[in-house]
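Annotated sample (chain length 542).
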Amino acid sequence: MKRLPLIMVAALWAASLGMAQAPAPAAAAAPITTNDLKNIEAPKPEVRLKGDPDGSLTGTVSDVPPSDAKKGLSIGDVVNQVGQNKIAINFVWTLITGFLVMFMQAGFAIVETGLCRAKNANHTMMMNFMVYGAGMLAYWLIGFAIQMGGVGGVANLGGAAPLNTEWTFNFFGKPFGIFGQHGLFLTQGGTYDVGVMVLFLFQMVFMDTALTIVTGSAAERWKYSAFLVSSFIMGAFTYPLFANWAWGGGWLANLGTNFRLGKGYCDFAGSGVVHAVGGLTALAVCMILGPRIGKYTRKGKPNAIIGHDIVLVLTGCFILAFGWFGFNPGSTLGASGNGSLRIGSIAVNTMLAGMAGGFSAMFYMWMRYGKPDASMSGNGLLAGLVAITAPSGFVNTVGATIIGLIAGVLVCLSVEFVDRVMRVDDPVGAISVHGTNGLWGVISVGLFADGKSNYGGSWNGVTGSVTGLFYGDASQLVAQLIGVVTLIGLVFTFSFVVNLVVDAVVGQRVSAKAELEGLDLPEMGQLGYPEFELKPRAVTVS
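Output written by the structure step:
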């Protein structure tokens, strides 16, 4: 018999020592009583100094600080710690998912830059970079107060009680909430509060997502100063107003309690609040700006203007898909209590719809034009993610997949319609990705919600789960359609009027000379790619 290698002998010897020293199985622990808790002594610091290799001294009830060290730990101390831990879990979950949504800004930036020409790379990146600053400043000053100042508290975040004042008026004898009144500068009205801070961060990055949608559609001809003014107004007023009506205790959310229309307008993570608001504002700005030079012939036929880097585009799509796991599951505002464990279902729905949208867009373009189109496949992925954002918390996986498949084809049809019929120039297809599919996501709640999402037993103050037409509640679809009409009729109109004023005061569009040269030097003073000499080429208009 051959000798065992030395390392195997050593391993066997070490294993035998471990087996010899293994403790006997512990007996089942007796239930803890109130008397047991009262008699627990505060932990002694010297215990930790000796080390705790097996973890038996770490994370036990003895780590709960007693209110009275002489009497020891009471049941009240333990219950208080349990409550703190629950809220802490929800704080951490909401903050981390908010960080993921913030990272989506990088995805938007490189998707838009890749779909634009190299001579505008610096300008496009800088719009995406500074929309974060301009939007956040406006939102901190006034937008957050308008949106969430009357929400009345968020249970998962410990209540956030200072947000309790909504301006309302009576209509048909029912209160209609219009805007909140607490939260200016995060100090007014007692809103210097940890729960309010968490809510602000999460809602702020959603607002930023809506604002950055416009930068892609208006790219390659939008004056930088006009972009800053328009973005500030959108962060202060346009976005917060509709967000209040849907999420802040406003009149859309109360369609259920006031008029028995389902559970009121339901938009779990923002297909309407974030994406449709951004997409419709983008449509308004693009209509005012007009098309890029060379986009259309004299007869109105569109010319393709190809972006400079498809690698950036698809990389950005991956980043956005990753960030969407914060966008949708994070909208539970917690991972503990009130049905928040549904984050698992929401994450899977998000993934399936995105996949389905990318697949159906690729398949549609392949069948129609003979080749799979990379940029439209990416837009299909994003369209599926946009469409599932509103219903993600209310539907099953079959519904999510169907919603995504429809979104992928819908974005292709919409891009063609906007480009050829409306003759609105959108370099990145954001109007179709976010506007069209944002509206589709809102409608899909009223169709596919399966009545299984019991978030603490009610939604928007109405008992029961959100249930759509296909599962027996036609009134939910009515509430969703009212939301769609509001988005198109009020939000689009408001955005158009505001940007007409900006155009009159500041001027929205750069000069023809600057546009032909590329906006990097005239607007930003520096090329995005200084190692290349970029020269304008002649444009033939037939």
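Annotation: The CA atoms of residues 96 and 326 lie 8 Å apart.
Annotation: The radius of gyration is 28 Å.
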